[in-house]
Design goal:
9-stranded antiparallel beta sheet, conserved putative lor/sdh protein from methanococcus maripaludis s2 fold, OB fold (Dihydrolipoamide Acetyltransferase, E2P), 5 helices
Length: 359
């Protein structure tokens, strides 16, 4: 063989090796994963909280509607539904020209009343001097004093009217009473409003609670409950409830009593009116549990992958009960205590398809 042919052969071998080497690494990684043991957990009885579940609704502790206190046209709307507002921020402005004119008129009356009072004081002081010299009668002195007192009263009345006009002018600028989120806007730019017309509705998301109606049959157990969990199905979240308050009033139509549960912190995505479930811990009980991650749901079938002592993997249908918080899900049928189930159903399914489950 010539040296040129040998060189070509070496180059081809190197090329084939470079192309096959990544494939060998991939296969080696796959073999390593296949050889890794499947994580399992034993099915066992555990002592968990006995739970009574009630349906509830989220509501804001602080929710209010700001209304107009004067008549006028809306000239500025600075926030819309969903906007965050800080305490003291201007949310709506009403045309203040009419109330400004009223304030200017009141201030002019104050100036007039002060001039009248100054004149009445001077006249009263002169009359006092003349009375001491017996140039005027006691009746004249009394009239001068009465005019002086009337001028003082007129000034006080003018000041009160001006203060009232200034307060009314302040109503033209509507501010947020507290920080929160705008839930509804009731007016549009250019609309004319009258006193009592709702402008905006808002709530404080940092101060929320959940209310639930509990049947009177379960009320005694709920009263003794020291803790409860609040579940938000739409958000996929579950939080521990804060203070629990049972209202001292029953609904005569439904024979239920309302229970309030404070949220210890703001749950991102929650808002007033959202559906929630309240799980009251009313005692302790023993239940056969498995982790929620081990459950496989295929259309209407609920199953788990069971791993026997020889390592064989089988898919088995089970019947489940209540969810016991972070402890797991209750098993009502299909499993026995001591059996092992796969914690990762996806890996278990791959192992079954690869033949590992058919030993």
């Amino acid at each position: 063989m010539s040296s040129g042919a040998i060189s070509v052969t070496i180059v081809c071998l190197i090329t084939v090796t470079v192309r096959i080497f990544p494939l060998l690494l991939f296969l080696a990684a796959g073999w390593a994963r296949a050889a890794a043991p499947l994580a399992t957990t034993a099915v066992e009885y555990r002592e968990v909280d006995e739970v009574y579940t009630a349906e509830g609704v989220v509501e804001a502790v602080r929710q209010s509607t700001v209304s107009a206190q004067i008549s006028g046209r809306i000239v500025d709307v600075r926030f819309d539904v969903g906007d965050a507002v800080r305490k003291g921020e201007v949310i709506v402005r009403i045309d203040e020209r009419e109330v400004s004119d009223a304030l200017a008129s009141a201030q002019a009356q104050i100036a007039q009343a002060r001039a009248t009072l100054q004149n009445a004081r001077a006249h009263y002081e002169r009359t006092q001097q003349l009375f001491k010299q017996s140039f005027v009668s006691k009746a004249a002195l009394d009239r001068a004093f009465a005019d002086f007192q009337a001028a003082e009263a007129q000034l006080k009345a003018a000041v009160a009217v001006a203060s009232q006009a200034e307060t009314i002018k302040g109503f033209a600028t509507v501010t947020a009473p507290y920080g929160g989120v705008v839930a509804a806007r009731h007016v549009e730019l250019g609309e004319t409003v009258t006193p009592g017309k709702p402008l905006m509705t808002g709530f404080d998301p940092r101060d929320m609670r959940v209310v639930a109606d509990v049947p009177q049959l379960k009320l005694a157990q709920v009263r003794k409950s020291a803790s409860a969990d609040i579940e938000f199905p739409a958000l996929g979240r579950r939080v521990k409830a804060g203070e629990i308050t049972v209202l001292p009033v029953a609904n005569p139509q439904t024979h239920t009593t309302r229970v309030r549960l404070l949220l210890p912190e703001y749950v991102q995505g929650s808002y007033p009116g959202m559906f929630a479930r309240v799980h009251f811990a009313i005692g302790r009980t023993r239940r056969l549990l498995i982790p929620a991650a081990a459950v496989v749901r295929r259309t209407e079938v609920t199953a788990v992958y069971v791993v026997d002592a020889e390592g064989a993997i089988r898919l088995r249908q089970v019947r489940l009960g209540q969810v016991s918080g972070t402890e797991g899900i209750e098993v009502l049928g299909g499993l026995q205590p001591g059996e092992k189930v796969a914690l990762d159903p996806v890996k278990a399914a791959i192992a079954v398809k690869g033949g590992e489950g058919r030993r």
